[in-house]
Amino acid sequence: EPEVTQTPSHQVTQMGQEVILRCVPISNHLYFYWYRQILGQKVEFLVSFYNNEISEKSEIFDDQFSVERPDGSNFTLKIRSTKLEDSAMYFCASSEFNANLYGYTFGSGTRLTVV
Amino acid sequence: GQQVMQIPQYQHVQEGEDFTTYCNSSTTLSNIQWYKQRPGGHPVFLIQLVKSGEVKKQKRLTFQFGEAKKNSSLHITATQTTDVGTYFCAADTAGGYQKVTFGTGTKLQVIP
After folding, report:
1. Residue B16 falls in which region: left (phi positive, over 0), alpha (psi -120 to 50) or beta
2. How many pairs of residues across A and B have Cβ atoms under 8 Å apart?
3. Which residues of A, range 5-34, sit inside 8 Å of B by Cβ?
């Protein structure tokens, strides 16, 4: 079964530092997403990406966040200056078609801890 | 933004008992999806419902979409310890075509 892979699985960073979370979506998928989940809470949408550009973003996805697809396989989320409240599990997801029609395949997540 | 609410927030059941979680929206939904997240894991897509009044079954799981397409339910018959996890509904609530909004989730604990 094809998988979405995320690295690293855990990341600890100091407040104010930049972090890059990496994802390799399923190869034939066209739509890519980042979600986050603060411990014990619901899964929150951050951003969707299609055709090499952001298609939607939430109010959480402010100027300190950016996404990139630097090559044909990787999809990255950068947080420029981390804050304590950025501590969460970050999930990458991909879908072959629109996710609201066919559902997502999620990666195993990166647990980000900002200290 | 629009919220998709789920009840209950937590449910403890004895193994073998049934379990139901409900998902409610104040607005009409175009479709609804259900995901399961095991403890420490990631959400896994279970099913999607599109039609008003639609009912779908997966073994012991029964999913239903309300007639008004504002609510949905997931019913598990004769729970097993493998059913433990958090069940999320997810829906396109704001007309965006490339994202879904996750509900608040119901955490199920099955007591052996």
Report:
1. left
2. 63
3. 31, 33
